[in-house]
Amino acid sequence: MKYDFELDKVVEKIKSINAKTILIQLPDGLKMNFKEIVDYLEKKTDSLIYIWGGSCFGACDIPCINIDLIVQFGHNQFNF
């Protein structure tokens, strides 16, 4: 299945806050797509991209680390 990760919106956010370190969180079912996400973001920004290898159970599962921006992807749309 092909997902729309709306990576242009992620790039816009990264640039709008001048984020240099980005953490990407993916649920287990989407972790296979990490390379597509990292490659795109590295191509479009000057940021260092990290992938969270641990669990990700949604918007309440945020690791406490020193990162400029955390981007969580899920199977369902979540508007904020």
Structure summary, number of beta strands: 3
Would you identify the regions where 5 or more consecutive residues have pLDDT less than 50? none
Order of helices and strands: HEHEE
Helix fraction bin = 25-40%
Q: Can you say what the CATH homologous superfamily is?
A: Diphthamide synthesis DPH1/DPH2 domain 1
- Our estimate of the beta-strand percent is 15-25%
What overall geometry do the principal axes of the alpha carbons give? globular
Mean pLDDT: 85
The tally of helices reads 2
Please give the largest β-sheet: 3 strands, parallel
Question: How far apart are the first and last residues' alpha carbons, in Å?
Answer: 25 Å
Protein structure class: alpha/beta
Architecture, according to CATH?
A: 3-Layer(aba) Sandwich
Oligomer: single chain
Topology:
Layout (H helix, E strand, L loop, with lengths): L6 H10 L4 E5 L8 H11 L3 E4 L17 E4 L8
Parallel strand pairs: 1-2, 1-3
Characteristic terms for this protein:
about 80 residues, alpha/beta, Rossmann fold, three-stranded parallel sheet
Can you put this structure into words, describing what you see?
The chain is α/β, with parallel strands linked by helices. The chain has one domain (7-72): Rossmann fold. Helix content is 26%, strand content 16%. It is built from 2 helices and 3 strands; from the N terminus they run H-E-H-E-E. It has helices at 7-16, 34-44, and strands at residues 21-25, 48-51, 69-72. A 3-stranded parallel sheet has the order 2-1-3, covered by helices on one side. The longest helix is centred in the middle third of the chain and has 11 residues, at 34-44. The chain is globular and about 30 Å long.
